[in-house]
Each structure stands twice: as C-alpha cells, then as structure tokens.
Amino acid sequence: MKHHRVLVALGLIAALASLEACSKRGEHKKPRSEASQQSPDRADDKATRAKDQAAPTGPPEKVLLWHAYRDDERKALDKLIAAWNEKNPQVQVTALAIPFDAYVDKIQVAVPRDNGPDLLIFAHDKIGSWARDGLIEPLGAWASPARLRRFLPQTVKPLVFERAVYGLPLAFKSLVLFYNKAMVATPPKTMVDLISIAKEHTNAAESRFGLAYDATDLYQHAAFMHAYGATTYDDARGELAIDTPAAVAALSAVRDLHKKHGILPKGVQGFVITGMFNDGSVPMVFNGPWFSSEIDDAIDWGVAVLPTAQNGKPLRPYLGSEALMLNARSKVRGAALRVVDYLTSDEAALTRLKMGKQLVANARVYENPRWAADPVIRIFRAQADVAVPMSNAVEANVAWQPYSSALSKAVFGDSDVQDALSAAASEATAALTKLKR
What we know:
alpha/beta; four-stranded mixed beta sheet; 44% helix
C-alpha cells in the first residue's frame, strides 16, 4: 500500500509539472478578450471574495450549463446547482439536459451562432476538434497547479490539447468485469481462466453464453488492443496505426472468443446484454460504471479488474475523463469559472459520488477509508491505474467507424483479420486526407 501511494504521488508530481508548463505557455498566447487576461487563481480568488462581500448591484449574471446526465447523476447535479443559486444570488445557473445522441451536433451548431451554453459537460475525446473549431476556450493560468492538484492525474492529462488545459475533470469511466456471484464464485484473473469458466456456462442452442460485451465497438475492443501493444493513432508520430501486427494479434484473440471457443454471442449490445445478465443467460460482462444501475436488484453481483489477455499482458481499457469545459464565446467567463470551481470542488465531488454514484476525479475523496474500501469503487480505481486515456486528437476520430466495421467483419463475419484491418486503414486514411484539406 505504501509503495502504491508513492507511485501515485510521483505520478501526480510529474503530471502537475507538465500541466504547469501548459499553463505558463497559455499565458503567452494572445488573449481573446479582457476576461482572458485575468491573473492566476490567487488574485482571482481574492477578487471573487471581495465581490461576494460587496452589496449586490444590478441584475444577476446568468450561466447556462448543458449536460447529458440522467437519473442519479442528474439529481446530484441539480442539487448542487440549487445550493449554488441559493447562496449566490448574483450568479444564477441554469442546467439543461440534452439527449446524449444529439449533444455533439447541438454543440457544433449552437455555439458558433451564440446560442450555446456557457459551460458544457462532456467526455474529453471531443476536445481536439472543439478546440480547433474555436468552440471551447483553454483555461490558461486559471488552471493552476493548485487547482489541478485536486484531481487524479490520469483524469487531467486527457484534458490537455496542444499544451493547453481545456477543462476540469468531474468523473472518469472505464470498463471492468461484472460477474454474477451465484454463477461465478471467484472472478478469473486471466483470459485463459475466463474462457474455461465461460465454457461451463455456454450452450448456444439455449442462447446461453459465458461472456458478453459489444465486440464490434472500438471503445470496448480497446482493452484487447492495448494489451497487445496496438493503437489506432500514434500521437508521437502523428499518424494512424490501424493494421499493425499488434492490431492483428489483438483482433485474432477476440475472434477466437466467438469462432473458436464459442463463448461470445454474436452482435449483442446495450440493453440486450443487460437482459442476458439479469436473466442468467450470461454470467460475465465487460462494461462500465453505468451498467451497475441497470442490474436487477435480485442479482448478487460483483466487479473485478479485467483479466490478463491471452498473451499474459493486462487488458487495458480506454479511460474517459468527463469534464466541465468553457464555451469560447461565453460573455460571463468569470462567473462561469466560479461555477466550474464549485462543481469540481472536493465537497461537490462527494455529493456526486454519494448521490450521483459517479466515479469522481477528486483524489481526496478516495483518501476516506469508507470510499477506498468500497468493493465497487476500489475496483474501478484500480482499473483506472492501468487504463489508457482516449486520444483527444482530431485525427484519431477518423478511425472509429472504419475500425468498428472491421471488428464486425472479422469477429462475426467471414473476413480475414488482416484484410479487415487493412480495409479500415485505407478508409480512415482517406477520411484523414479529406479532413486535412
């Protein structure tokens, strides 16, 4: 445990050193407005306190926030905003829930027309494209090391694009292994063991299988991809890397789960997987934190870190960092940043954890023995330490659709693995060429 804490501390120091450099670089950029020239957080906080102590004058500043939260996450956010509005009459926040499937399109259409929100909550992978399109603004010196020190380093790193910080993290997400304790007494630590256990629960004629996950989704396939040393986009070299030997090995291992071992059902996803887990048709599922709210109360379930792959390397899923970002066209930047500070505070994070059931990004929350020992939170925290942050580069996005198509053709279709990946590489390269014109 002591060794683990030292490693975490060293990682935090390294991350903050890099991020401090990002902040300093941001100070030399030409500011977009007078609001962008605010001094670092110490002076900013002093001015904020003075403003709070002064008698309210004029109408309140209004901050609009867009999010895609539902259920418990939305309730926790609404509670925090209601508390803010009660205590801060001069800065009133309105939160608007946008359907997830429509969120990206609405941001890209509304912001350039000055109809968008001042603040937006979304996953970090869109930061690259939104930053280049001028939809979101870097936080500059305001994102100081003192502020960033609140968070787990791996949740901050994905928010850096071209050496500038574009948001503060709220929560993180990754895949883990969910299992039915009535069917699997001890979760497997290796894919070899998982395959063995899964075969005991597989009867294709009765639509019963040992493992379920959306194998045609690149987000879920990434755990195998990274275990074999593959990627979709090489950030260091600035080029696509789709049809490499490592990628072929990873996809071949997944193909075997369906075609050789027969433990993986064809084409299941979403609530179909939930239904199979709830009715006992499958004992093990790869899924994210959102899955826990879908499990039937009658199921005695547990979670475990993803097993090691067939090559002995750990499965390393994508890490998603959900963040608060600032609209580059917001006319209430100062007030919006105060709201960001509040919603990402340790106190607010505790509300989001307890009520919203979020895996919050704030490091201090996990120093509390109650949360550090929680059997679900503990596993997700451990998985986060080996997860790989999704690239936020604009170029990386072109790989998603072609790669998912290759997964479908190779895992459940008759396409050769190399041929499927080569076709995906050609399609992604053409899309990238078009993007750069």
